[in-house]
């Protein structure tokens, strides 16, 4: 039926003016895309909705339109009759689940490993054999699966320092300030193992109603901040945070540099991070920090340094996180700190660089930032990944 329609259309195009041909050709492409489109998945149930950190939990998803639509042939791609099977895509916290079996009404998967927390589940019936994206056919189920017993939201605090001595007499400290505009107090703190076990938070942990507060963090380079989930119902407001890093030896000259805090759901999973237009000046220090949201669990990450304009590779390396095990509430992220300039093999004529971190097949929940420090003034410029 489809081939007949296309054949008729092609005959109709004979003798049509070029501009008209372009318009009609575009219409055919849209028509063929519409013919092959599958309705989005409909999920009626997921069971179970919790499991251990190590993954491997068998989860059954029931609903409609769960299997990808597999076309008999493609107009815009090489024909395949029949086209190969391609399973649906299921993500837990951005990580790929292992599909065990699927029909249009039932999907059975095994969960990937994750640190403790409540994560979104994504179900997509996109036909990915030709490399198409899953987003257009994806259904996002917010906070649908819990790993371990940690039900708290997790935020990455990328830099934590208290009077750390640096080069040229600099003294670095960070200041973290939060704001709770809700009508009730919110439990918030760095490490919640005791809270999860006893369900009674220590007295010093928390943000009073309608208050500005300063969370206490252990200065170990970076940290996680946990807080009660705020469901977004009418009348509720998310907690707000500000993190500033300052050189106390020059505090009369500058109030410091703002550093973003990053929520768990904003991490990069199975997609490279790009940090663009990074100044490459002789009198500067360039530091790359890479964070693993699952904590210190080991693993390696590739890093590429490129000319920002020509995209030529100037240097590369593979970095490794410290080894460890998955935790219910990891107190700190996995962290790698890298001095960038020694990795650049040919800096001639380079004024700006681009740093790429990660790999499309890397099942890690990552984030990164670059700090560029002027060696004369100790002023810091922060560059974060392009979303």
Amount of helix: under 10%
Our count of domains comes out at 4
Tell me what the CATH architecture of the largest domain is: Sandwich
Q: How would you write the strand order of the largest sheet?
A: 2-9-8-4-5
Shape field? globular
> Beta-strand percentage?
35-45%
Largest sheet: 5 strands, mixed
Kindly report the name of the CATH homologous superfamily of the largest domain: TM1070-like
Overall number of strands? 27
Query: Total helix count?
Result: 3
What name does CATH use for the topology of the largest domain?
Answer: Hypothetical Protein Tm1070, Chain: A
How many angstroms does the end-to-end distance come to? 42 Å
Mean pLDDT: 84
**CATH first level of the largest domain: which class?**
Mainly Beta
Order of helices and strands: HHEEEEEEEEEEEEEHEEEEEEEEEEEEEE
Class by SSE composition: mainly beta
Quick summary:
The chain has 387 residues and is mainly beta. It has helices at residues 2-13, 18-36, 193-198, and strands spanning 42-47, 50-51, 58-64, 89-92, 95-96, 98-102, 106-110, 117-124, 138-147, 153-160, 164-165, 171-180, 188-189, 211-213, 221-227, 240-247, 257-259, 262-263, 268-269, 273-279, 284-292, 300-307, 313-320, 334-339, 352-357, 365-374, 380-383.
């Amino acid at each position: 039926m489809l081939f007949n329609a296309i054949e008729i259309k092609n005959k109709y195009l004979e003798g049509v003016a070029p501009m008209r041909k372009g318009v009609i050709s575009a219409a055919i492409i849209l028509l063929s895309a519409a013919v092959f489109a599958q309705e989005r998945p409909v999920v009626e149930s997921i069971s179970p909705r919790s499991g251990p950190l190590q993954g491997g939990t068998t989860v059954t998803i029931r609903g409609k339109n769960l299997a990808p639509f597999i076309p008999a042939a493609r107009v815009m791609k090489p024909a395949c009759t029949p086209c190969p099977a391609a399973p649906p895509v299921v993500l837990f916290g951005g990580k790929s689940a292992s599909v065990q079996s699927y029909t249009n009404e039932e999907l059975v998967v095994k969960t990937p490993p994750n640190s403790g927390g409540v994560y979104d589940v994504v179900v997509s019936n996109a036909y990915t054999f030709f490399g198409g994206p899953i987003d257009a056919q994806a259904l996002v189920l917010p906070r649908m699966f819990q790993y371990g017993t940690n039900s708290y939201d997790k935020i990455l605090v990328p830099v934590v320092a208290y009077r750390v001595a640096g080069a040229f007499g600099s003294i670095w400290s960070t200041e973290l300030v939060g704001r709770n505009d809700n009508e009730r107090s919110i439990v918030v703190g760095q490490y919640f193992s005791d809270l999860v076990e006893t369900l009674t938070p220590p007295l010093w942990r928390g943000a009073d109603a309608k208050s500005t507060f300063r969370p206490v963090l252990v200065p170990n380079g970076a940290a996680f901040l946990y807080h009660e989930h705020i469901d977004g119902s009418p009348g509720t407001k998310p907690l707000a945070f500000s993190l500033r890093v300052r050189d106390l030896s020059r505090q009369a000259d500058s109030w410091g540099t703002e550093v973003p805090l990053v929520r768990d759901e904003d991490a990069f999973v199975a997609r490279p991070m790009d940090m663009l237009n990074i100044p490459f000046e002789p009198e500067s220090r360039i530091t790359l920090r890479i964070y693993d949201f699952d904590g210190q669990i080991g693993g390696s990450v590739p890093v590429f340094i490129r000319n920002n304009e020509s995209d030529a590779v100037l240097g590369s390396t593979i970095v490794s996180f410290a080894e460890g095990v998955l935790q219910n509430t990891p107190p700190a992220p996995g962290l790698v700190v890298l001095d960038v300039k020694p990795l650049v093999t040919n800096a001639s004529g380079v004024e700006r660089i681009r740093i790429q971190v990660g790999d499309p097949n890397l099942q890690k929940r990552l984030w990164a930032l670059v700090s560029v420090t002027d060696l004369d003034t100790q002023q810091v410029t922060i560059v974060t990944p392009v979303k």
